Amino acid sequence: MSVARVTEISATSTKSFDDAVAIGIERASKTLRNVKSAWIKDNNVDVEDGKVKSYRVNMEITFVLED
Q1: How far is CA 62 from the centre of its chain?
Q2: How far is CA 10 from the centre of its chain?
Q3: pLDDT tier at 67, thresholds 50, 70, 90
Q4: Which end of the chain is more exposed for a tag (fewer CB within 10 A), N or C?
Q5: Is residue 1 predicted with pLDDT exceeding 90?
Q6: pLDDT tens, 30-46?
Q7: Three-class SS string for the chain?
Q8: d(C-alpha 50, C-alpha 36), whole Å
């Protein structure tokens, strides 16, 4: 039997939403062990002078706790 925990993070990229997700998961994996999944709760963009400046995702990361 395993027990998991969920933590919420936000990640930003100047390239795309997909890149922001990858950045967030990569960064979370540096601190959290046993990362198993991510749920993308929200997508946002920052706009400057009528153009998209950056992409932001808010996500919940699920990781399994060690015994």
Answers
A1: 11
A2: 6
A3: confident
A4: N
A5: no
A6: 999 999 999 999 999 99
A7: CCCEEEEEEEEEECCCHHHHHHHHHHHHHHHCCCEEEEEEEEEEEEEECCEEEEEEEEEEEEEECCC
A8: 37
Based on its alpha-carbon atoms, the radius of gyration of the chain, rounded to whole angstroms, reads 14
Token pair for 21: 């997700």
Q: Which residues pair with 9 in a beta bridge?
A: 59
Q: Which of 54, 57, 22 is nearest to 42 (CA)?
A: 57
**10 Å Cβ neighbour count for 61?**
21
pLDDT (mean) for 21-35: 96
